[in-house]
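Field: COMPLEX_INPUT
Field: COMPONENT_COUNT = two
Field: RESIDUE_TOTAL = 736
Field: MODE = joint
Values follow.
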Amino acid sequence: MLKILKIRLKQGNCTIPYPFKVKLPERFRGLPRVYPERCGDDCKLCADACPINAISLNPLTLDIGRCIFCENCVSACPNKAIEYSDGIKMSVRNRSDLLLRGQELKLAEALEKKMKKLLGRSLKLRVVTAGSCNGCEMELNAVNNIQFDLSRFGVQIVASPRHADGVIVTGPVTNNMKLALEKTFAAVPEPKIVIAVGACAINGGPFEGSPHVHNGADKLLPVDLYIPGCPPHPLTIIDGILRLLGRE
Amino acid sequence: MKKDFLMIRNSAAYLTEAVPVIELEAFRNKIAEFCNKADGRIVALLGKKENNESLRIFTVLGSDSKGELYISSAILSGAEYSSLTPDLPQANLFERELYEEFGIIPKNHPWLKPVRNSAGYEFYSLAGDSVHEVAVGPVHAGVIEPGHFRFNCHGEKVFNLEIRLGYQRRGVEELMLKSKPSLRLVLAESIAGDTVIGHALAYCHAIEALADRQVPQRGRVIRALALELERVANHVGDLGALSNDVGFLPVASYFGRLKAEFSNMLLALNGNRYGRGLLKPGGAAFDLDNELVKNFKIRIERGMKEADEITDLLFSTPSVLARFEKTGVVKTEEARKLGLVGPSARASGLQRDVRCDYPFGMYRFKKIIPVKAATGDVFARARVRALEIKRSLTFIDEALEMVPREKISISCEEIKPSSFSVCMTEGWRGEIAHIAFTNERSELSRYKIIDPSFHNWPGLEIALKNGAISDFPLCNKSFNLSYAGFDL
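Field: COMPLEX_OUTPUT
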């Protein structure tokens, strides 16, 4: 017992204070910045380097819903037309808002007034893994560790869809998980929300086009919030959820 | 043995025509003999469509104590063969997979059913007085991957547990053949997102072997460092989850925070908490500069102290030991029969570790001594993890002194035609095997992936036999297997 107390005292309070002022390492790949004006004529080096066709040209457009945040386009470009920032805020309400063409990213707006009143101070979510590699799961578990501590905001991940106000979907939605996802969603009482976490749940990620998957949650459910990343950093997830509740 | 098998090295390329083709029934008998008499084990059993549309079955067998790998094959031309499973339980999932993928029917297989498809799947069921069934999943209470667990119980006691997976099936092996090289690497990283480095490394080895390229030592050091960091982060996380499952929350929170310390070292090295983007065929994509070495030295030292302090507390708490000890036992002989790998095998007294038995990359130059326990229970699986954390941190600490001044990578593009390579790495869950074949046009023509979970899921079923159903979460966590890695 004394040992436990000693360790507890030594640990102190490890929770990251809110609002977050975390210095992430230099190499962290946060929100990309796109500068179409820097593109060379007929250059398509970045698009060729991208493993999952997240880049289209004329004008240069990066789909951060598809993006898996690798280094390929950045190192391929001689003109620094794509750069990573250390920004963790990148969740949006509409799929099309994830297309970056050099404009400021239109971050997620809060839920409609009635929904916000219902869920704004207490939101319970059920996570359904539908073909995710377990990367997003680890970050969703991390958001509830003592450092990130999502529950301090009144947001909880619950065991039953009956107790939930919505679902978080990860993974491209495999054929073998389609029914389970639909049933879980149906079991959540109305009104309810859907949050797609990670590149796979947004557009299928690296599995896009496989005959075994559905290329993302919004092919089956009405998605209210897209949280990009591969996997998204816990701070990105928390920021997205708080934005949806109008608390960011 | 000599004329029927080709002896191969881990992560080296050979011509596919050099693999002996033997008669099917003899092929089957040789596998059973090798595994039952010598200290052998099935590393892989896979089918491959040949150019003339005939089907060729390959097997890779390993003799762990001698560090020897063998490969052989047989052509399946409509012939049936007698199932290996009755003689060799570890062949069960492999034979079911061959049945599911190619329709090969082994005679006298005890119960041939699909591995990843739900169509035609039947559960074992039990009838009788007060016997009941509990069905759990695919959607679970926690934030974990989907799988279905079917318990046949009498009261609390579990007579039989059957695990049905496949919900996570994304078709990775097929995608590997269709995708461009840059996407293949991302796919390899996404086989199991908690084993990014382990799988990406096996993929890189495959491409490097087929391209006949040697990675610079500096690249190898960075890779080994990342592989060990991944192991430490996951083991620490597992110990935290085990503490949580027995209700020891201060320790669970501490481990949870400590896991982040190690994930964040990977983040500092390459910008992603799981090491995505760090490896590439030919070496590493990010360098370990002097400043980072210094910084890592301090963090590893601090991490060691904290890991020691908290594991000591965990293992000196009687109520924890009462829950861990004699729960979910897998005896040595059972583990051997099932062909378990990794910490789950080592906890049951089997000294199996790819880093020592079939060393690759930096482990050829710097040895790591494997950890072993004897009791095969939750305690042993936790203990092995705790000791491995220590060994790995020491390894990292020493490796940080061994970073030579040279390039971190070389180009690695052209791959050889009509060849194959068997590449094994020791991920934190155990042996990862990637087997790559190329055709005469130097394209990948078959890519087989075997996650350690493919070997180990049956271990969990055995661990629950005659145990209490309420111990399931604890047993499950003590294995902590991958669903995505199994389902592919």
